[in-house]
Amino acid sequence: MAGRRRVAVAMSGGVDSSVAAALLLGRGCDVTGLSMRLWQERSNGNGDLDGLSAARLVCRHLGIPHRVVDLRQEFLREVVDYFVSEYARGRTPNPCLRCNRIIKFGLLREHARQLECDFLATGHYARIQRVGAAHRLLRAADSGKDQSYVLYALREHQLTSLLFPLGNHTKAQVRTMARARALPAADRPESQDVCFLRDNDYRRFLAERLPGAIRPGPIYDLHGRQLGEHRGLPFYTVGQREGLGISGPRPLYVKSLDLARNALIAGFAEELGRDGLIAAEMSYVSGQELPVASAVEAKIRYRARPVPARVWPLTGRRARVLFQSPLRDITPGQAVVLYRGDWLLGGGIISQAIDRVPHTGYK
Q: Tell me: the pLDDT tens digits for 241-292?
């Protein structure tokens, strides 16, 4: 990196963003810590304020300025309300995807520009590779910590002004670097799955926010026989085994949610596989759709392993993705993310699972 570049680091108060700031400072960058104040449920603790205080302590330790951007209303409208509305539609959203796209790499990046910063850096475990004049988004070197999945909506023009300093490091190395620098966040625990919940209990949260949508209803098998009663569709997700309340000689899993009938469809493990999916809101890092029947590796959840697939772009920013072998747990509301090796190509939000279409099957 030539010259002394101005970098805003998205500071959460955790170890990853703290080490990212320290590494950039060590490279001679002019670093500013930039923290978001986001909406959170009221709790007995200070919640988000604890994170802001931790970030302030780290910045003071590093000798860099610290600024706070109040995005509570934007976060409530764009992330929390979306989270609730998706569950009301019988889908299972990943709020981090929307937060990254709209809040962190949208609104926060704009605040960094207003501070005349050349780059926004985060503590994500992912890499950016420059190939000639092009920029590619890659998986992290540490496959066990790779967070590229939640970054799939980034576009190439955004990558030119983003930095991921941790992309070539393991989590263990990051902890070691934090302790070596005596960073206040060195031993801070990982953040919880859904950051705005006071107790990480999304069912309790949905029951309070969606009292009209939490209605008991029938559980059917694939032949239409009623097996039991569910407690409310928002409490279940595709592939779930626990909590069905049905005893039998073999485990049953959630196969699908039928919102029109307020019914849950259950099946045995071997009945869950589907051949593919339709995705909406497709986004490609390069800005260009993939050629018809492109061979890729696809991930349908953050922790899922990538599997061979082919992609057919459709009208209206949609795509058909067919897997080499049937796949379980294809969940509307989650993202399907497309890779070629370490190279992230793009992704979209799963709208429905499908079976193979005649004459367009996987080849």
A: 998 999 888 999 999 999 999 999 999 999 999 999 999 999 999 999 999 9
Q: What whole-number distance in Å separates Cα of residue 279 and Cα of residue 321?
A: 8
Please indicate whether residue 99 is annotated as part of the active site. yes
Cα–Cα distance between 218 and 226 in angstroms, integer? 6
195 annotated active-site: yes
Could you give the domains of the chain? 6-123+165-180 (3.40.50.620), 215-271 (2.30.30.280), 274-354 (2.40.30.10)
Active site residue: 29, 59, 99, 117, which one? Answer: 99
CA distance 108 to 254: 38
Report residue 1's pLDDT band, with 50, 70 and 90 as the boundaries.
very low
> Is 246 within 8 Å of 228 (Cβ atoms)?
yes
Q: pTM of the entire structure?
A: 0.93
- 11, 66 Cβ separation under 8 angstroms: yes
Say how far apart CA 117 and CA 162 lie, in whole Å.
Answer: 11
